Amino acid sequence: MNSKTVRTTVPALAATLALGCLAALPQAVQAQNAQASPSVYVQGSQARRDTDVLTIGATLPWKDWQRPLWGGQLTGYWDIYASRWSYDGLSGQREHLSLVGVTPTLRLRMDEGRSAWFWEGGIGLTVADKRYEIRDRTFSTRANFASHLGLGVSLGQQRQHDIVLRVQHVSNAGIKKPNPGENFVQLRYGYHF
């Protein structure tokens, strides 16, 4: 499978998953007071200069931790993941790097936690097997911070399906120069068990 096929297949798969889960939206509204449970997920991301990322991961909820906030319910989870970045490198050839990360994440559901919709955000750490280098930017470190904000919906009778649209920024927070950072748009499908 060549890189062009991957770039067209990943968004098509993500769109198919999103449309299928959105068809179940009326059932999502019925789900009330769902307990936090672990999940596994797949996520597609894209940044400028044809940088594509495929991520697989798992979430582990913070047991017995929830707080009321702004009429909603605030919960948290650990996001543990592995990613494969594909991009046009300095040589003009398609290059790849592998990355692992962990992010503590907060999730806010409105209507005292009854809403199917939620906001989330987190800041975590990543480590890559090499530095990210493209034509107009070069990371100076393999270890970086990853911060994100997202809007999502939980679908299904038990809220077992999550669809989340996220924006993520990856950089070293100025620890070493240059620190150009990179921004990603991400679409995630998660399954809670």
Structure description:
There is one protein chain. This protein has 193 residues and is mostly beta strands. The chain has an 8-stranded antiparallel barrel. The radius of gyration is 17 Å and the shape is elongated. The protein has one domain: Porin. The two termini are 32 Å apart. It has 2 helices and 10 strands, in the order ααββββββββββ. The longest helix has 20 residues, at 3-22.
Order of helices and strands: HHEEEEEEEEEE
**What's the multimeric state?**
single chain
Instruction: Report, as a whole number of angstroms, the end-to-end distance.
Output: 32 Å
Mean pLDDT: 86
Keywords:
single chain; mainly beta; Porin; 8-stranded antiparallel beta barrel; two-stranded antiparallel sheet; 10 strands
How do the strands and helices of this protein lay out in sequence?
Layout: H1 3-22, H2 25-30, E1 39-47, E2 51-69, E3 72-88, E4 94-109, E5 117-128, E6 133-134, E7 137-138, E8 143-155, E9 161-171, E10 182-192
Brief sketch in words of this structure:
This protein is mainly beta and 193 residues long. The protein has helices at residues 3-22, 25-30; strands at 39-47, 51-69, 72-88, 94-109, 117-128, 133-134, 137-138, 143-155, 161-171, 182-192.
